[in-house]
Structure formats: C-alpha cells, structure tokens
Amino acid sequence: MLLSSTLAFRKVSDISPEILKKLGIKGLILDVDNTLTTHDNPRPADGVLEWLDLMKKNNIKMIIVSNNHFPRIKPFADMLGLDFIPDGKKPLSVGFKKAMQKMGISNNEIAVVGDQIYTDVLGANLMRLKMLYVVPIEKEKTMFFKFKRKMEIPFLPKKFYK
Fold it and tell me: How many angstroms separate the Cα of 3 from the Cα of each of 96, 117, 126, 154, 157?
C-alpha cells in the first residue's frame, strides 16, 4: 500500500543499528522538520546528535532530503555533518533519486525516515524504498498542517517497534 510504513517508531532515536541490520539497510534518507527537530528550529531535538553518532559509528550512510529551501537546510545539515538535498519535492522522485545517487548504495539498502504520510511515506513507497515512520515531535500550528495531519489519521501506523 502506498501510504504504509515498513516499521513505525515513537522517535528517531528508537531506530537502532540492529534493526537496520535486520532490514538490510545501509543508508538513511532523513527528513528534518518534526523528525530531527521541530519546525524552523535551528537545533536538533534531544537525543538526535547521539543517535547520529551511533549511526555513523555503525557505518550507516545518511543524507537529508527536505522540501525546505537551502537557507533553512544548509546550516542545520552542516551542524549535523550531513550532506543534504534541499527543495526535495517529496513525494516526487527527484530528491530521493539525487540522495540515492550521492549515497551510492542500492535502493533495497536504503530507508526513508520521516513523519509525514503524504510526503515521506508516499514518496518512499513510490520509489520502492523501505519507510521508517516516526511520530511528529510536536503538533504543528498552521491551518495547513492541522488539516494535513487530520487527513493522515486513517493511514497512521497502529503498531510501533520497541
């Protein structure tokens, strides 16, 4: 199904190298807002830096793909020491394809990590990538996002990996 995830987690730091190894994942395409930090926040959420270090120590390749623009993503990605694709146009394939090319690993060894059904989950499934859904860090405040989140409810994961 186009709107379903491979696995779901409460937060990004719940994704362990052991889980990735079981799934055959060697690379992660990461979303930013409400996955690694809150909207427009220049700092990563609690535990994210330690999680990134753990992934790096386990040779997991990572790249950010965001629908946000260069001025938002570059300073954040630089702080994390990650490569990035701004204006990723998720759920379209353009950002995912660029990320896969930069990582240089096959699509069956890549997973997308994100919090939105209609961008991250749909995009991953259209590209036939594994999808690791994470619960949004916080509720959005704009009417657009409130509407979008309401429309996601029927497709939200029911079970979370522990």
Answer: 17, 6, 10, 10, 10
Pairing of strands 7-9, 27-30: unpaired
pTM over 0.90: yes
Residue tagged 């990735």 (tokens): 20
Separation between Cα atoms, residue 126 and residue 117, nearest integer Å: 12
Which residue from 137, 49, 63 is spatially nearest to 99, judged by alpha carbons? 63
Report the length, in residues, of the chain. Answer: 162
Residue type at 2?
A: L
Over 90: is that where the pLDDT of 38 sits?
yes
Amino acid type, 87? D
